[in-house]
Amino acid sequence: MLTVAGSDSGGGAGIQADLKTMLALGTHGMSVITAVTAQNSLGVQGAWELPAEAVRAQYRSVVDDIGVQAVKTGMLATAELVETVAGLLAETDAPAVVDPVGVSKHGDALLAASALDSVRTKLLPLATVATPNLDEVTQLTGVRVESEAGMRRAALALLEYGPRWALIKGGHLPGEPVDLLTDGTEEHWLRAPRHDNRHTHGTGCTLASAIAAHLAHGRPVVAAVTAAKEYVTGAIAAGFPLGGGIGPVDHAWALGR
């Protein structure tokens, strides 16, 4: 498996969360780092994008030699990097999970506004599954979600850009968390209990990586997303304090079962 994303120096999200998830779910993780962040439980103190040529070289290095059975994308930061990664994905015969990371858990911007159109037109058409949260789907489609009906409208608007499946994450709505997975024909509402735990750093990265891991094992999309939802729900329940702010989910929670 390959993650194409930014590095989180605090280890809760980004490349670090992706690799932990991949290991926990029985896959070999490889990485293409797109940006380096100075980040901890309190927020993002700085971010530096890598040159497109460095991203391209990392990708070709591992894919041309080792091969890949699923790709997950996360923080891509700029239009140039979005377009570079989209070009690489177009040449790769593997399912792609696109997590269109726009902001961090703490509200820090991780994608330039000028890159949104590249995400819509270059990256989303290549996605097997796109996994925006409510803020990200509003950024991409203009649809503001305040209810489950709004999630359906947002999903259909996102599918207009070409992903095979849209997974709209509704955890920010009041009540029990619910996500909507749809390809425009089928609808699957994935519900889970809300855990009284503030330590949820890395949830989105973890979910997208878990979906990709199950796709790499050969599961169809609905089964992969359902299993990934179960994994991340357990990781949230086991999230633990680290530092002075929002701690990470526990990627190793299931290893003792």
From TrEMBL:
User: Which Gene3D superfamilies has this protein been placed in?
Assistant: 3.40.1190.20
Per UniProt, the keywords (alphabetical) are: ATP-binding, Kinase, Nucleotide-binding, Thiamine biosynthesis, Transferase
Task: Give the domain of life.
Answer: Bacteria
What processes in GO biological process is this protein linked to? thiamine biosynthetic process
Q: Which GO terms describe its molecular function?
A: ATP binding; hydroxymethylpyrimidine kinase activity; phosphomethylpyrimidine kinase activity
Q: Name one Pfam family in it.
A: Phos_pyr_kin
Q: Which InterPro entries match?
A: HMP/HMP-P_kinase_dom, PM/HMP-P_kinase-1, Ribokinase-like
- What are the Pyridoxamine kinase/Phosphomethylpyrimidine kinase domain coordinates in residue numbering? 8-250
Catalyses which reaction(s): 4-amino-5-hydroxymethyl-2-methylpyrimidine + ATP = 4-amino-2-methyl-5-(phosphooxymethyl)pyrimidine + ADP + H(+); 4-amino-2-methyl-5-(phosphooxymethyl)pyrimidine + ATP = 4-amino-2-methyl-5-(diphosphooxymethyl)pyrimidine + ADP
Q: What does this protein do?
A: Catalyzes the phosphorylation of hydroxymethylpyrimidine phosphate (HMP-P) to HMP-PP, and of HMP to HMP-P.
Q: What's the name of the protein?
A: Hydroxymethylpyrimidine/phosphomethylpyrimidine kinase
Organism of origin is Streptomyces fumanus
Q: Which gene underlies this protein?
A: thiD
